[in-house]
Amino acid sequence: MPLLTLRILGHDLPGADCGEFRHVHVGTQRGREPDQLVSAGAAGAVFEIPVETVTAVGSGVGSADGGAADEAAGAAPDFRGPYVQGRRGARFVYLTWGELPPGGDFEMFRRAKIFLADVPSELLDAGTVETPLGLTDAAGLPLCAAVRPPMITWAVAARTGA
Hints:
With 162 residues, the protein is mostly beta strands. The protein has one helix and ten strands; from the N terminus they run E-E-E-E-H-E-E-E-E-E-E. The strands form two sheets. Strands 5-4-1-8-10 form a five-stranded mixed sheet, with no helix packed on it. It starts with a strand and ends in a 6-residue tail after the last strand. The model is unreliable at 59-72 (pLDDT under 50).
């Protein structure tokens, strides 16, 4: 299974204290747990999310042609891994927002969904793709809900290093 790394270049964070929330942090969600947490008061945040790409084919169960129609239509990409959420055909990853007071536990209060089907199919073998993403909504609060194009645009990651 080829590995694809999603790199989210977060900018315009809302601040560690925004709205009614204090000690705000943002990170990815691995399973049910927050991961890669960054203070929302930081100048920016970079999240790297590994995703396995697989070819999803129909099982043929319940189809008169035994799955031949699925094969003729071409196999659709599917995604797996510890950060991947949702059912086949609607997979996504979360950015999770929460309060993390000093010495306390992370208390999630909102999330943003980034749909994997929005990564252009021609980029799935690129190794690493990235997108810039403003992390503050129009009300000055943490970005939440579905994040879809044109708000998010994927491209092959720029090479770094010498």
